[in-house]
Specification:
Blueprint: E1 2-3, E2 6-7, E3 11-13, E4 20-23, E5 34-37, H1 40-48, H2 55-72, H3 76-87, H4 94-107, H5 115-152, E6 157-161, H6 178-185, E7 190-195, H7 202-214, E8 218-221, H8 226-231, E9 237-240, E10 244-246, E11 251-254, H9 257-266, E12 271-274, E13 280-281, H10 298-301, E14 302-306, E15 312-316, E16 329-332, E17 339-342, E18 345-347, H11 351-357
Parallel strand pairs: 6-7, 6-9, 7-8, 9-12, 10-13, 12-17
Antiparallel strand pairs: 1-2, 3-4, 4-5, 10-11, 11-16, 14-15, 17-18
Helix pairs in contact: 1-2, 2-3, 2-4, 2-5, 3-4, 4-5, 5-6
EC number: 5.3.1.23
Site (Transition state stabilizer): 163
Active site: 243 (proton donor)
Length: 364
């Protein structure tokens, strides 16, 4: 996608041919900062501190983190240590472990002296595959938007989303936003309600930044406004992303997603989850088994912002001395999900629905 007319991905190989560059998402929307990652420790830190975030991008960054580690030491023991180290950074997003498994499968069967080149090749392929996967998610999801647009006779389709499941959360295109971008580019009138997404404000900071850069009409709303908007008929469809989907169709996504799904169900608003195949965890039978990351309470108690002079500061926003809990994700039961939008098509949010698109996963 583009920022001020210049095309970007979220992660790419640096000009030196071996280190990696990323957009530092902790600086957005106030500054566009590019950070160079030269070690596996730097890649892990970028994942942990959310310089990169979003399940697909976490996976891509972990893949390049493995390549950086293997460049330094391609032994079996070193590869296993690097994989375990990277896996420990974020517990909920399954793409992280998926990408690490892909990297290990690609390099461990090879002679030690061939592993670094293979690692970089597989990491690059994971990124390219993610771009095409997200493009296809948009192709299938756009049909849902087109159907609503046809019923509205030229009035804008109002989409509500939560957190950032855009191109900044992937390598390009995004998951939940890919149908929006493709419908907009095809001339479909659109408006997006952007949940601010406390406590890190990924909606207000990142999704709004993306949509504004692409020229898509949008409005930032507080997280608790979604139900009100649905009650008044101002939401035609909810599309969100996910960090992990259990085999039965339960969905782990940014905290607050469950409440949006409840409101959508109560108001007969379709609620769709957009995801790539790498986000499905076939080893987890239901959402109760998904580990939920608990992040530092400072994310709730403090907030960064830009002053009139342009400087960016972090300020305290809560009562001094009060503790804060900060679960980063919640689980939306499959019964509240209208369907999944994947690179293979749209399916029901159930084990049977997923297997209809991924029949190979049902082979024992």
């Amino acid at each position: 996608m583009k920022i001020e007319g210049k095309p970007y991905r979220t992660i790419w190989l640096a000009p030196d041919g071996w280190s990696v560059e990323i957009i530092d998402q902790t600086k957005l929307p106030h500054a566009l900062a590019i950070v160079r990652l030269a070690t596996v420790e730097a890649a892990a830190q970028a994942i942990l501190t959310m310089q990169v975030r979003g399940a697909p991008l976490i996976g891509a960054t972990a893949a390049y983190g493995m390549a950086l580690a293997i460049r330094e030491d391609a032994s079996d023991d070193a590869i296993e240590r690097a994989s375990a180290f990277l896996a420990a950074q974020r517990p909920t997003a399954i793409n992280l472990r998926w990408a690490l498994d892909e990297m290990r499968r690609a390099v461990l069967p090879l002679p030690v002296n061939a592993r670094a080149e293979a690692a970089y090749a597989r990491a690059a392929a994971i990124c390219d595959e993610d771009v095409e996967t997200c493009r296809l998610i948009g192709v299938h999801g756009r049909k849902l938007i087109d159907e609503i647009a046809a019923r509205k006779n030229g009035a804008p389709v109002n989409v509500l989303t939560h957190c950032n499941a855009g191109w900044l959360a992937c390598v390009d295109w995004g998951t939940a936003t890919s149908p929006v971008y493709q419908a907009h580019d095809a001339g479909v009138p659109l408006h997006v309600w952007v949940d601010e997404t406390r406590p890190r404000n990924q909606g207000a900071s990142l999704t709004a930044f993306e949509l504004g850069s692409h020229g898509i009409a949008h409005t930032i709303v507080v997280d608790n406004a979604g139900g009100h908007l649905m009650q008044h008929g101002d939401v035609d469809i909810v599309i969100v992303g996910t960090d992990r989907v259990a085999a039965n169709g339960d969905v782990a996504n940014k905290i607050g997603t469950y409440l949006k799904a409840l409101a959508a169900k109560d108001n007969a608003v379709p609620f769709y989850v957009a995801l790539p195949h790498s986000t499905i965890d076939w080893t987890v039978q239901d959402g109760a088994e998904i580990p939920i990351e608990e992040r530092h309470g400072d994310e709730v108690l403090k907030m960064p912002g830009r002053l009139p002079d342009g400087s960016v500061v972090t300020v305290e926003i809560a009562a001094p001395g009060s503790p804060a809990g900060n679960p980063a994700f919640d689980v939306t039961p499959a019964r509240l999900v209208s369907g999944f939008i994947t690179e293979r098509g749209v399916c029901a949010a159930s084990r049977e629905g997923l297997l209809s698109l991924y029949p190979e996963r049902g082979v024992k």
